[in-house]
Structure prediction request, 716 residues.
Amino acid sequence: MGWFHDTDGSSADPRRSVVSVLRVHDGRTAGAGVLLATDQLLTCAHVVNDALGRPLFDARTPGRLVKVILHGATSTTRYDATVTHWVPPRRVDGAPGVREREDQEWLGDLAVLRIESPPEDHAPPPRWQPMSEGQALRAWHSTGLRSSFADVRVKSCDETIGYLDGDATGMPIGPAYSGGPLWEGTGHAVVGIVAAHIMPPVDPATGRPAAYSTQHIARRSWSIPWQRIRSELRAVGADMLFGSPQADPDDPALLLLADLLEATMPSPLLRGEYAAAVAERCGLGHRDHGSAPTFEEFAKLLVVRPRALAALTEVLRRPEPGTADQLLAAGLLSRSPKLLSPREYRKLRVLLRGVPEPVTARLPEAVRAALPLAAELPSDETLDGLLDRLESLPGDSRTEAGGPRVPGLLRVMEYFAVLCSAVPRAGFRMWADAVAGRLGIPRSALAERRSDAEDWARALSTRTAPLRVLVQVTGDDSGRYRLRMWCDEGAGPRRLSLEGGVTYSGAEAAHELLRVLESLYRAAPDDRRPLVEALVDRAGLNLPIDEWESFGPDDLVPGVLGAEYPLVVNCPELLRRNERFLPDWRRRWRQLDSGTSLRFSDDVASPREVYGTLMDRRDAARVSVDVPPRLRDEVVQVCLAVGVPVVVWDRGAAWESHAVDHMTDVTTRDLPEGVRSYRAKTVHRPHDFPGRPVLAWADADRTVPQLHLSEPQESR
Prediction:
């Protein structure tokens, strides 16, 4: 063991290493897990399957978040976790598909989960050691209750499966113990996890437990020993979860850092003090005070532990600012060191958790505004993944004095801060000030980025929704239409009177609508034309309302409704009939500027496949549909029914639509105007712009009037 070493948690309460894995449908515990690292936990794959409501031995890798609870000394905290390594259950003969009733033993059955919001002050992960026969072990129920411990002894262990027998008194291992750690008190270590319990026989007629017999197996369970856990996880590339990381001998920063440490910390006493401070910040143990690591060992720590260099400059910034600058410059030669120290990273996560979810969902919007020239970030990135990428981005520009750049992450957090209310905004700014100070960035440089963010926020605040005209269009068998109209200046729909019982042809309806729109446009406080929102039923989604043209004998110019005004369609009927998707619709709308854009263009795409894709991609705010006409209407309606607020398609008979392709370059919020512009081009350049685009637009922030879709004659 070197001067630095990992803490083993032997002095902590072992019960605190137990993690509760929760079921999504009722919030009760499905099973337990055990910490492998600060942000990694191990459990059984069948526990994850149970938590997500899947068959216990489902071999497919889960794509959904898992809810877990970590147990602190005085409180418990709930976190989201993502499956990072998956070893599905398999039969002992190697065949897939464990049979729940027939198979009494199986292999695999392991899952490693990454905690989305790492805890700040949790007990360190436990130490692990091999399981062997005769060991006295202790397990806990997944609730982690103090009284739920079960004492067992290893009766048989072949490094693949360990059989455990429980004491005749006390708590037995049973349901919801699976995945939990088996603690060996003498060695202060975990030796495996609980996998299954052999239940007593049941009466075949009633299904109830049979009368107890001394010939029945009592309190026997089996477990997965650490030996098999280690080999199974290594087989799926999880080697980094155990064993000390090694420094790359060819890392260009390694020798430079060692030379800097030797030049600036020749005294063992001083070097030992700084090394101890870094170890404590990084959650490492170290030798007694009075000793010191060698220069080479200290330098290796700075390139092996991603946040160690930031932690050292955190310690050095005030007493040795010049040394801190030199170390940061040397660290730029290595790919290992991260921007933030452990304290700075934990503080940022605390600040982000304190922001309401709708505001957090706008973080990608702040990224795009703050770093417009940065490479595009994946739209399905988790918060941890996004922060990790942002830490790796360089700064945007140097200061006038040639000082260090303002890192991309700090610029993003300045832009994100202006989206928050006063209290969290102040917290983010104080955090950014502290990080910039530790990095030696002049206050004037960060102030300039803060000013840019405030300018962006002012621009956002002046962006208001346009005046909106809603028109319910209901057709009859004769090809004529009834209209009901409302105006919405921002305070909600206000009914506009029309002559009751009147029906219109397309040209007559265009004339009436243009008359109303002209008067509203003249009275509008700004220069923007009103948005026309056509409220239709499912059968009316493809009505050519935008093509309706008013051109009388006395008119000098035609009046093509969709060329003059941005016109969208809305089908409230589909959401009304599928109300379980209303929360999804609102969430997707909140992500209008940051959510995923999907495109369905497969000529064999089925509504079931579209449904499954949209359930998987719950951040999809915009969908383009470019499938053959025989599939198009059903695919469009599935998208609208599950709450996708923005859907684009072409009502024409062609496949591989020019209009749908053209709209891919238009940002989501600008689509109404982009579609209007395309429709205008079809008037004078129909050969170059042959499409007939339809834009469905369901704004969750603006209400629609109560419609009587089953009574089209209603004119009140």
Remarks:
- The first helix runs from residue 45 to 51.
- The mean pLDDT is 85.
- The CA atoms of residues 663 and 674 lie 7 Å apart.
